[in-house]
Amino acid sequence: MKKEIDNFFLTILTVLITVIALSTLARAASVNSYISAHHYSPATITKQIWKGFPRYRYRHGKGKPEGVVIHETGNPSSTIFDEIAYMKKNYRNAFVHSFVDSNHIINIANTDYLCWGVGYPGNARFLQFEQTEMHSKKSFAHEVENAAYYTAYLLKSYHLKPNDAVYDGKGTVWSHGAVAKYLGGSDHTDPVGYYKRAGRKYFHKAYTMNQFYKLVLTNYDDM
Ligand SMILES: [Zn+2]
């Protein structure tokens, strides 16, 4: 009898642990699952190259970037068009190659040349784009899909293999935060805080660079 009771409790315990693990997994994947469930197709990549940006070669030469850096503007009230106009005025301080939001992927600086988004030494190595802040579940999901698709597109275009650099400082897919942590050049942490906040607000769970990287892989494999 004692043994049967033990077995009974062991079974209950196993079921409970499985349920908890599965529900955690389901919540953790919710942004990416939502995107795949809704069959989002990414925005068309629009080229609006502005001639005013300086053109300097990457450290390995023209058209030889080593990876992609994902940024977020940190401005809760600006649109993609506000940000692009601001950048053209203030490019001497900083500029990136492209901007992404829920409906647009706009390339404003020639990606064969470096940009100034993460300081030294990252600027001489990476393609870089900014995301503007979105304010609904649907628009956040669309933006993240556009960003992952554009990252995969850039990797493919420059014959770079996907490799998550965020946890070890080596690879082709970087957050600005990871560049700052492993290579220096600034003390910025984006887009981690924005992903965490928007994920919690709209999906009840922080979105992470790790999940974003998985979405990049999905897009890369589909190309
Ligand atoms: Zn940044």
Outline of the structure:
Pfam families: Amidase_2 (PF01510). About 45% of the residues lie in helices and about 10% in strands.
Query: Strand-and-helix sequence, N→C?
Result: HHEEHEEEHEHHH
CATH topology: Lysozyme-like
The helical percent reads 40-55%
DSSP helical segment count = 7
Radius of gyration: 20 Å
Organism: Lentilactobacillus farraginis DSM 18382 = JCM 14108
Protein name: Internalin B
GO molecular function: N-acetylmuramoyl-L-alanine amidase activity
Pfam family, one: Amidase_2
Summarize the helices and strands and which ones pair or pack.
Elements: H1 2-28, H2 30-37, E1 45-47, E2 67-72, H3 80-89, E3 98-100, E4 105-107, E5 126-131, H4 137-157, E6 173-175, H5 176-183, H6 192-203, H7 209-222
Parallel strand pairs: 1-4, 2-5, 2-6, 3-5
Antiparallel strand pairs: 3-4
Helix pairs in contact: 4-7
Zinc ion binds next to loops.
Describe the structure.
It contains 7 helices and 6 strands, in the order ααββαβββαβααα. With 223 residues, it is of the alpha/beta class. It has a single domain, classed as Lysozyme-like. The chain has a 6-stranded mixed beta sheet with strand order 1-4-3-5-2-6, with helices on both faces. A hairpin with a 4-residue loop joins strand 3 and strand 4. Helix 4 packs across helix 7. The relative contact order is 0.16. It binds zinc ion (ZN).
Salient structural properties:
223 residues, alpha/beta, Lysozyme-like, 45% helix, 11% strand, globular, binds zinc ion, N-acetylmuramoyl-L-alanine amidase activity, Amidase_domain, Amidase/PGRP_sf
